[in-house]
Amino acid sequence: MLKSQRATFVSLAVALDIFGLSLAFALAWVLRESLGDFVVWVGHGLHYPVKGMVRHSHKLPEFYRIVLSRNPLVNTRHHLWMLCISLPSWLFFLNMQRGYDPQARRSPRQEFAICAYAGMLGTVVMMVFMVLAKYDVSRLLLVGFWVLGTLSLWCSHAVLLPAVLHHRRQPRRNMIVIGNQAAARQFKEILNTPAYHGSHLLGFVSNVGPVQTDANSAAEFRHLGNLNELAEVLDREVIDEVILVRSQTDAVSGQGEASQRWGDILELCLQRGRTVSLVDDMVPPVNAKVEAAMIGTLPTLVLHNTPQNPVSLAVKGAMDRVIAAVSLLLLSPLFAAIALAIKLTSPGPIFFSQKRVGLNGRLFNFYKFRSMVINAEEILEKNRAEWEQHNKMSGGFFKWEDDPRITKVGRFIRKYSLDELPQLWNVLRGDMSLVGPRPPLPKEVAQLQPWQRRKLSVKGGLTCLWQVSGRNEIDTDEWMRLDLEYIDNWSLWLDVKLLLKTVKVLVKPKGAS
User: Fold this and answer.
1) Residue 103's Cα: distance from chain center in Å?
2) pTM, whole model, 2 decimals?
3) What is the CA radius of gyration of the chain?
């Protein structure tokens, strides 16, 4: 039922936003059309200062008649395609800002900020489509729609949605928690959010025997009884849903009636037709997302702390391959020039290939333009003890700004990261992504600390937070922390921002070697 209430909240919010944005678009169009008539009327007055305004004041009623006679449906008919593009893009960017998260708590100012930001991005998308379609639309209409659309979204989320949820006529759903006072208090806070308006926590049934309740707890929720009194509680109280919380202590120690009678509790509630929500507190509060799934006939909790949205990941994969293919085609003259420069200035192959570790430990051939002498690895191992004092990294990684193994051409292409361009082929093959943590060497993986190994849970990439944050100017721990920060906060929009920042870094290189 809690999931149903969340879905109701999101559906109502989307419906209000669609209505508000449609109204804002129509109003922006009417105002844009009417402004021309208003300027004409004012122009008569400006032509004859002061006296002219009075002389032509009889035309003011005609101006209002023109405004009121306009039919928004007729005038916007030829621009409905703009609205069809704007609506999904505005809603998409608002969702990316957690605009439809019922658990998000924001001030009116913060609500306005995310609405304005989503509107700005949605307007940019509409302008791109206009350019591609070679369609000329008034800039005044775009600005007006952005302003009015932002106001409509803000009114929907800050004013209308809370009011509608508060006054929405629906039977109150009574819930009880089987667990301890801490669990009951936690659910009390959750049910007090607007998304769960109409849900009421009657109290809790203790799963660990007698409970001492203070005056504050008794005022918040009642102690309805102990677990052996559950049948009596279900028959006595008006209860719509039971929230069963199994504590970590009960599960591990084997003590506690909730752990011993798990199946009996479920059967008792379901026999009486009560909806049961299971909360397994034995799962630690790690930085992970939890989903319910069925493996055969077994109900299963799936935990993951890496991006799992299939639609977003499919878009990311398609974007990787399209951009890689187009870039390889457009940059082919540059590839030829770099290859010629490498071949003419130093002996050895044009490309450098080595094994790197990709998604979840998969090995693949990693390609770069050769920027070092052909026996660079052997030279490093021979001189590592002497050169270690110049190493800016740790944990098996070696970076030296004045590395003598780098060729003259190699130093130039490294400065502008041109040596990384062949990795577009890795992206096209699916071994890498455009954006993601840098794929390490097998020997580097062997020296990673346990908390650092999570960087292998996603595909490696050409650029990431590390590349746009100074590269070799930051230490290894900070590098790893930035990689994990990217994984924890991944979104398509974050990828786009990092790609744009990477272009800026390439123009003004800093920290590359």
Assistant:
1) 15
2) 0.58
3) 31
Q: Which two tokens stand for residue 387?
A: 């050169």
**Mean pLDDT, range 446-457, rounded to an integer:** 86
Beta-bridge mates of residue 200: 174
CA 252 vs. chain centroid, Å, equals 35
Give dist(CA 483, CA 454) in Å, integer.
9
Does residue 406 sit in helix, strand or coil? Answer: strand
Distance of CA 11 to the CA centre of its chain: 19
Q: Are 359 and 456 in contact (CB under 8 A)?
A: yes
> What's CA 175's distance to the chain center, in Å?
32
Give all domains of the chain, ordered by start, each with its CATH number: 2-167 (no CATH), 173-282 (3.40.50.720), 310-507 (no CATH)
Report residue 234's pLDDT band, with 50, 70 and 90 as the boundaries: confident
| Residue 486, CA atoms < 13 Å, CB-side half-sphere | 32
The H-assigned helical ranges of 192-261 are 215-220, 230-236, 248-253, 257-260
The pLDDT-based confidence of 331 (bands split at 50, 70, 90) is very high
Mean pLDDT of 2-24: 75
